Each structure stands twice: as structure tokens, then as C-alpha cells.
């Protein structure tokens, strides 16, 4: 009898030891952060700073001890701005790499190509793209960090109204972002009692938009012009606008909110306005602004590391990663459902883009007021309101 007890005790000890070893091994496994970004190709101005940001802060977090006692491992792919490639890479991240969460999707097209996969696999996904369709209607496993194109339209048109403008011309790209922005602008204009008196579009391959702008200029009653797009197109529109000598108030969307746009547009950008993150004017923020310290620190760290100017698009990646980390810490695990629930209930997170307040009804967590209206003055961004 005595020997039997000993044998059972030994077996129990062996099982306990094996369990501890398994738990220890799991604890030592890295937390896998998956990402697909447009690092090269026509949307590289989005993906390049996003990847640099993720690399820099994954490294920093690991140096500070990681998350939940585990290191982070960034697994990323370059989708070259192609939606089909994005879908394939999202599938690889989920099935082969078995990531814990995805932070990526530089463009709306790439993001939406991946959405059905992440919803089916039930993996938390934080998108870095702008269109309202990403989170409206709400998708259980999908979140996003940039303000929506609808918020941008609301902020721009409110600024127009403050200037006494009620009729304007709209020009937009035919890609996913520009097309969605056009739709949102038309809807917001109707709700605000404003009129779009001219409505022109351009494709991503167009190299001159003089004809479209001439049509807008010749339209009776136009008081201002808004361009909704990203990439090279808005810079071309801006240069053509100046070449035509158009002197009406000119607006761009948040799709060009970076210093690289100023370099592309040159002196033609003088006087234009757009909604943007305070990242472009951190020192102009009042000292009691809750975002000031976060924005200044991100700007300083990014520019010191990469020796290049900071970008609002990189900031979307910063907020995405930090929201993911906060959710895992609050969940106390990397269990997908627990992390998703934590993301959905994040409140008061002060990011570079804005102060995030998520809810089951809102997987973006920002409002139009998180945008600041900037104007180009003497070749630099100037905070207007």
C-alpha cells in the first residue's frame, strides 16, 4: 500500500512538473504581431513610416521587458498597395504564422480584402486605413486608428461654413479612399445644407487634372474647392490649381497630411487647408492639451531613429500597436476573445491621432474634433483651429 501511494505521488509530481514546463514554455513564446503594409508601390508614403514605427516600438517595448512578461515578434509583409496581395498575406498571417493580433492595412482596399478572413478566423485586427466602411457597420473583430473620411468631410465642411461658404466644387480620386470620401462628402453636404455645385473625378494614372479643375472654375456659384484623395494625385491637383490661377479657398483631405505632400506640391500648396493630426504642429498645442506630450515624444523618437520627418501615417501605426498592447495587458492574456473585448472597451487612451474611446457601437473611438484644421503658410503647416 505504501509503495502504491509513492508511485501515485510520483506520477502526480511528474504531471505537475510537465504542466509547469509547458506553462513556462508558453510564457516564453513571443507574442506575434502580424502586419501587412504598403511599404513599396504607390502607397509607400503610407506603409513605409508605418513599418518603421512598428519596428521601432516593438524593439523599444521588448527592451523594456515586453508585454505580459513575453517579447513581441513583428511578422510583416509588403502588399505593394495591392488588395489581392493583402488578402493573401492576411491569410498567411492567420494560418501559417498564427499571429495573436494584426496591426496593418495601409489602404482601405487592402484592409477590406482582409476583413472577411479575420472575421472568419476571429483574430483581432486594427486597421490603419481611413474609410468609414472599415468600421461602419461595426465588424466584431475589426478596429481602426485613423479618423474616418466622414469625420474629415464633417470637419472640412464645418470650417467652410465658418468662412461663409455654402457652395463648393468637389474633385476626388476614383480609388477606394477617394471614392468613399466623395460619397461621404456628398452625404455630409446635404445634411449640413450645403451644395456641391461641381463634381469631378480623376484616376490614379492621371498626370494632369487641368480639365477637371477648369470645369469646376467655370461652374456658376462655386465658392471653394475640395480634393479628396491620396498619393500623387492630390499634389498634381494642387499644382494644376495654382497654374490655373484659381484663388478660391482650397481644401485637401487628411489623405495628404504629411510633410512629404508639401515637398511634392511645393509653393502651389500655399493657403490650402486640411484636417490633420496635431502631429504636424506639436509645438503649437497648448500645454494643457492631453496629446501634447505624446505627440512631441513620438515625433522626437521617430525623427531621431530614422533621420526623416515624422508622418501622420506612421502615427496610425503607433496608436494601433499601443492599443493592441493595452488590450493585451488589460485582458491579462493573448486570448483572442479577451483581447477583442478589451479593445472594444478601451476608454481615454491618449494617442498621437486623438483620444480613443471605443465601445461595442464604435470600433474607431474618435470624433471629428480630434482633427485639427491646418493651413499652409510660408511653406509650413499652421494650426488654425
- SSE order, as H and E? HEHEHEHEEHEHEHEHEHEHHHEEEE
Distance between the termini: 84 Å
Number of helical segments? 12
CATH superfamily of the largest domain: Response regulator
Overall residue-averaged pLDDT value: 92
Q: Can you tell me the residue ranges where pLDDT is under 50 for at least 5 consecutive residues?
A: 1-13, 15-26
Oligomer: single chain
* Percentage beta strand: 15-25%
CATH C-level class of the largest domain: Alpha Beta
Computed over alpha carbons, the radius of gyration is: 24 Å
Q: What would CATH call the architecture of the largest domain?
A: 3-Layer(aba) Sandwich
Task: Enter the CATH topology name of the largest domain.
Answer: Rossmann fold
Number of domains: 2
Total number of strands: 14
Task: Name the strands of the widest sheet in spatial order.
Answer: 2-1-3-4-5
Helix-and-strand structural type: alpha/beta
Largest sheet: 5 strands, parallel
Helical fraction equals: 40-55%
Shape assignment = globular
